[in-house]
Amino acid sequence: MRFPLSMTARLAAYILKHKLIGKRFPLVLMLEPLHACNLTCAGCGRIREYGSTISEKLPVAQCLRAVEECGAPLVSICGGEPLLHPELPELVEEILRRGRHIYLCTNGLLVRKHLGAYRPHRRLFWNIHLDGLEDTHDREVGRPGVFREAVEALRAAKAAGFQVSTNTTVYRETDMREVEALLEHLEPFRLDGHMLSPGYGYPAVNEQEIFLTREDIQEKFREAERLSRRFRLNSTPVYLDFLKGGRELPCTAWGTPTYNVRGWRSPCYLIADVHYASFEELMSRTPWESYGQGHDARCEHCMVHCGYEPSAALGINARRGDNWKLLRWAVR
Q: Can you state the angle between helices 134-141 and 146-159, rounded to 10 degrees?
């Protein structure tokens, strides 16, 4: 199966229950316990956007309150570089104890140093970022040797019995043939999935020319559909169909709320017009209908997974055969 059976069953039951209730509900909590990082990647807005709070760290207790308040079954621990947080092993263990699934997102530089502080668990994935082969990745992150260390990190994590996936951002200059070569390079490690995401333009990033328009995304991700037939991509076929221009999906950014040192980020992972003190405020006070393509200029070229994959998972704008397509994809 593409994901552990327990994760698939938990998500299916959770979605069914909340769809019956009929209210907006989260699928994935994007938890940012800090924004400090040991890299200065060209496409990252966090280290620029949160410059005034870059040294702040969320205490474990505050993170756990957000996990419980939100209630999402899956937690993506990101940042910044989360492995810089001194209490991260405790946080991971406590989130697992609460029955949540975790994707621990990292650039890989500190994985081998800290791997012994964690235990393999069926609900824990290491998610290591790779934006291409060695020359490309090291150029994107601004430091030589990062690609090799990230590959050694995923090798060590797999050898230690962990589940490991990768995340690759596709920018305007990305050659999809190199993405294919990267996935071929990683095949011997028998990883547990790969995520491809279109590069999204943070207002805080000055190098806007590296990001993709909707037309750019559609052109590049027509290739991604072919790659999905060969490699274990984590993106659903419905979302990939959207990316290549085969259908329209509404933005459901409320499905992937973000919590960080300033609170609940509204409206989404990419745009921060305000931060709320509580999850209830985020859900009830954010004017969701004011965002998305055709409503806010900042949303015109966004097709990023944290806004649109929830629509695919929830069956919004579903077509005949989508359920069968998703089932085949999940058990592959």
A: 110
The CATH architecture assigned to 5-331 reads Alpha-Beta Barrel (3.20)
Q: What is the pTM of this model?
A: 0.93
Is 179 in contact with 196 (CB distance < 8 Å)? yes
Check if the beta carbon of residue 249 is closer than 8 Å to that of residue 316: yes
Its sign, for the CA torsion 152, 156, 158, 159, is positive
Tell me if the bond preceding 267 is cis, omega within 30° of 0: yes
Q: List Cα–Cα distances, 54 to 32, 44, 207, 275, in angstroms.
A: 12, 14, 21, 16
Q: 27-70, pLDDT tens digit by residue?
A: 999 999 999 999 988 777 787 788 889 999 999 999 999 999 99
Domain ranges within the chain, ordered by starting residue: 5-331
State the sign of the Cα–Cα–Cα–Cα dihedral 55, 60, 63, 65: negative
pLDDT in tens, 209-266: 667 888 989 999 998 878 988 999 999 989 999 999 989 999 999 999 999 999 999 9
Adjacent-strand bridge partners of 170 = 198
